[in-house]
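Please, is this right?
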Amino acid sequence: MTKKALTVSIVIPAYNEEHHLKRCLHAIAKQTDMPDEVLVVNNNSTDATVKVARSFKFVRIIEEKNQGRAWARTAGFNAAKGQIIGRIDADTRLPTDWVERVKGFYADPAHANTALTGGCAFYNVRMPRLDQWITSQFVFRMNRLLVGHYILWGSNMAVPKKLWQSVKNDTSMRNDIHEDLDLSFILHKKGYQIHYWSTLVVGACMPHVFEHDGTLWPYLKMWPRTLQAHNKKSWPLSYVGAGFLYVMQFVPRSAERIAVWCGRPPLNERR
């Protein structure tokens, strides 16, 4: 008897993402193995986000009126029909084999109770490979040191639907903590594994540096706040990592300014 192929849903929370969503969906359209469904969760957008989503025939739009990424994530996960729920952001650009690799991972019965995550390379910084390495050290390696296990990265993750159904009522709807980190802790408490696949890398934007000046530090403080909310005794140490990442924002900016002074156009003006 032939075993049925796994079904995959991709959930994309979206709030005013008209500038990123089109490229995100184009990357999904180029998958070597298309997902069974793509859900864009419109979280009260006031721009052309919904119009962009509707221009792709494979997209199903979900409306979530409660504001916040956790609310949008939860609405999308609850509506997803696939056996595996992929979760990315509207600025994520998937490699063409992302769905194929996710299906391959979950084809192994040993991974049935495992959530999957991977890293990202920020495509709007001058030194993406260096930044990717730094991000992997702090997002994955340092968090593993602080809490004893890997954590999920919201721009690049997949969770079996049955795992989500087991923990969804325990997740927090707070907007002042990281919903992906919160989900990681709850999954681990329930006895599920989190696997970090270092070569499963997606492209992502670093908007807090280049688009929303002044919002980076409040965003970074959500890291220790999430650890504190889950009674992790190591939460004060995460302020060290948050401080380092805050300082690192000035490295690509300085490099960008030097490049402009030397006659090169800014990153946002290059193709």
Remarks:
- The CA atoms of residues 86 and 158 lie 4 Å apart.
- Residues 208-213, 252-271 have pLDDT under 50 and may be disordered.
- The longest helix spans residues 128-147.
- The radius of gyration is 18 Å.
